Amino acid sequence: MEVSGKLLPVDKSESTTDPANCQPCSKDGKHVPAISYCQVCAEFLCPSCAKTHRNMSATASHALRENGDMPNPASALLEGGLTEPCKEHPGEFIKYHCPAHKKLCCGHCIVQQHQGCKMNIIAEVSRDFLEGRDYNTLKANLSDLKEELGQCSRDIEAIQESTTEDCLKDLDQLRAYTTDIKQHLDQREQELSAQIYQIKEEKQSTLNSLATNCQSLQSKCQKTTTQLETQESNSNKLFIAANRALEQTPGLQREVEELKHKMNIPQYKLTKDANTKERFSKLDSKNIRLIRKHFFSSDFITDVTDMTLLPDDRLLFVDRNNKNVKLMLLKQDDCSSVELNNDPFGLCVLPGDRAAVTLPIPGKICLIKTLGNLSKEDSFEAGKGCRGIAYHDGKLIVSFQKKFSSPARVVLMDLKGNVLKSSEDHSNRLSVFQQPFNLTANSKHSLLYISDCGTNMVTELNIDLAVVQTFPLKTKPSGITSIGDTELLVCSRSTNAVSHIDTSTGQITEILEGKDGADGQRAVQFCLETHLLYKTEYTDSKCSLGVYKDDKCVFAL
């Protein structure tokens, strides 16, 4: 392989076994025997040039080999093949290697940076390098890198193909969805147009009747006025006519009042339906697919009992077995935690970048700061057996299981633990709960939803903690979250299934099929902005966070 660079001039007329001539003099056409050899410049020198070489500041530090210590011309020619320029001293060639610093050096480098180092002469150590272990290891590493890069290239191509397929699929779904919307809107436009024309015709008919009635009353009034005016010259006749008019006037006034009453025609105004956007955005159980999973080793996380989404793609969740609360940065797949020294269970977000966590055994609620690094702020007594927790309008809603309190109950308390209301206040509902482990709040409508794995029921309460309605489930419910105005997502405790509840109709649909697995708490959250569903799963004793996407509703209007 040829190497670009400065080549040493060699007199082709001379054999490489002949005595060397001075190379600087050879450039001037002179043939002067050499007595020295500069290892740095790789040149043979005559006495005059050697003296000059020692006296010049640029070459004074170069080591010269004298007379019998000089290499033969053949060896010097091999050494002269070192023509790679030094990066730090472009005018010099690389001829040495410093093992201590693992750096290639020229003569200037040795003087300036490596005076105390033991240097290898490349021309000597390179002779067996081709067959050496270092070179073979380098080749093997490069081969491994090439294989890895080849796999990366194939993976990139596969992802590119998948991306294109997903794009086309999503565009087809979008077009189909917009077509459905257009058809719905066209149908709705026709219906509303018919109603508008019908209202117009009804109003026009009423107005025509009122106009006729008004003209008739105007004629009567004018006739009476004319009769009075014609009798003004005869007082007797005027008196008679006026009395007759007085008799007729009350009836005429009643007819005018009836006319005015009928003129209060209802007014209609076309307005936008505030719920249209939400109806288009509702979760579609037929279009949910897994897009990624975050796996956790068993020593890292084993039992997620509750979780909630925070701004900036952060997920806050309870790790009961490890006695802490963790904050995951979803984009970086990174976690931080705060230790609680007791088994936590329920979790909810509070104003001011804070969260509240229930500690069932000591019966406390711990407040946590969620901005930056997680940290404990304060705690207060709530009562043993506290499980689920939610925040609404400056108050906490906390559930208590039957194991620790008889009967199980849901209470409304302030942020200091003072109980304001209890479900026990409704005497006819004392036994409605058994194991109300999880709950969520619909702040917009001031409604609470309790997930009870003892009764296999989700119960809707109003803010007074009175039962509004119940939703029976086929499996034990676990984690629960509220979506929009009338939707709930509920995890199954015994499987990895997730059910969707429409609270306005009572319809319950399994949107994610669950396989039988280890019995345990599971949690679920849904982001309305991205239409991503997050839920904890247990498969083969491994805990993971599944992230699912609603393909259709991610394009909701």
What does this 3D model show about the protein?
- With 557 residues, this protein is an alpha+beta fold.
- It has helices at 23-26, 47-55, 73-79, 107-113, 122-125, 133-230, 235-262, 276-281, and strands spanning 36-38, 43-45, 64-66, 96-98, 103-105, 120-121, 288-296, 304-310, 314-319, 324-329, 334-339, 347-350, 354-359, 364-369, 375-381, 386-392, 395-400, 409-413, 419-422, 436-442, 447-452, 457-462, 467-472, 477-483, 487-492, 498-502, 507-512, 524-527, 532-539, 542-550.
- The strands form eight sheets. A four-stranded antiparallel β-sheet has the order 7-30-29-28, with no helix packed on it. Strands 8-9-10-11 form a four-stranded antiparallel β-sheet, with no helix packed on it.
- Strand 28 (524-527) and strand 29 form a beta hairpin.
- The protein is elongated.
- It comes from Mya arenaria (Soft-shell clam).
- This is B box-type domain-containing protein.
- Keywords: Coiled coil.
- Residues 135-162, 200-262 form a coiled coil.
Strand order of the largest sheet: 7-30-29-28
Helix and strand content put the structural class at alpha+beta
Q: How much helicity do the residues have?
A: 25-40%
The radius of gyration computed from the alpha-carbon positions, rounded to a whole number of angstroms, is 46 Å
Unreliable stretches (pLDDT < 50, length at least 5) are: 1-17, 552-557
Shape: elongated
Assembly type of the shown chains? single chain
What does the largest sheet look like?
4 strands, antiparallel
Number of discrete helical segments: 8
What is the number of beta strands?
30
Report strand %: 25-35%
Query: N-to-C terminal Cα separation, in Å?
Result: 65 Å
Q: What is the overall pLDDT average?
A: 82
